[in-house]
Amino acid sequence: MLEPEHGLIVQSYAPRRQAHGRMNADGWGAGFFADGQPEPARWRSNRPLWADASFASVARVVASSCVLAAVRSATAGMPLDKTATAPSARGQWLLSHNGLADRSILGPHPHAESACDSAQLAAHLFEFCLERAGEFVRDLGKRDPRRPAEPCCSPTGSESSPPGETTPSPSCAPAASSSQASPITTTRPGPTSPTITSSTSPTAW
């Protein structure tokens, strides 16, 4: 997180690939698994990572083979407390969401750590089943009224189609709306930790 050339601390003040904002100064979080412990430990803060001297002093003596970490650039109107900072945790799972989830479509969850959209999304996913996260996100996209209408079938039938029937178009596959198609990263310990990889958040310790 601290030593690599493009580690998370550098991503906090000079991100290489970021569509919105110039830095990630609204908090940071790290979840990691320690040998012999069934559930991960977490360290989160609503301060910039570069300003947290206590973490820098401890990180050099902490090691883990499984880490999920993130820095935050808060969406306007979202809370700035540390409970809104990734990663979220439930049992053996850690989850980090990067993007915006429409809370009016998602709906509130009574067990969410924060009113923040990412915390609400995490609570819903933990309850739904993280192994089926893709199914949940696709369903959420279908409920978005801003999602463009897509044709359900091609306008003309193929030669192999019976008379009066049409051939399904490849475009019929469910597609999440742009407001919901945000990277979600999940992890838990094990030889093959299930992960939906985020393209923007380094996770090296």
Structure commentary:
This protein is an alpha+beta fold and 205 residues long. The protein has one domain: Glutamine Phosphoribosylpyrophosphate, subunit 1, domain 1. The chain is built from 5 helices and 6 strands; from the N terminus they run αββαβββαααβ. The chain has helices spanning 8-13, 53-59, 103-106, 117-128, 133-142; strands at residues 28-32, 41-45, 67-71, 88-90, 93-97, 184-187. The strands form 2 sheets. Strands 2-1-3 form a 3-stranded antiparallel sheet. The protein is globular and about 50 Å long.
Write the layout of secondary structure elements.
Elements lengths: L7 H6 L14 E5 L8 E5 L7 H7 L7 E5 L16 E3 L2 E5 L5 H4 L10 H12 L4 H10 L41 E4 L18
Antiparallel strand pairs: 1-2, 1-3, 4-5, 5-6
Any key phrases for this structure?
globular, 13% strand, 3-stranded antiparallel β-sheet, 205 residues, alpha+beta, 5 helices, disordered C terminus, Glutamine Phosphoribosylpyrophosphate, subunit 1, domain 1, 6 strands
Q: Examine the coordinates and then state which fold CATH places here, giving the name of the CATH topology.
A: Glutamine Phosphoribosylpyrophosphate, subunit 1, domain 1
> What portion of residues is helical?
10-25%
Poorly predicted residue ranges: 152-181, 191-205
Query: What is the alpha-carbon Rg in Å?
Result: 20 Å
CATH fourth-tier homologous superfamily:
Aminohydrolase, N-terminal nucleophile (Ntn) domain
User: Can you tell me the CATH class?
Assistant: Alpha Beta
User: What is the arithmetic mean of pLDDT?
Assistant: 77
- Strand order, largest beta sheet: 2-1-3
Structural class: alpha+beta
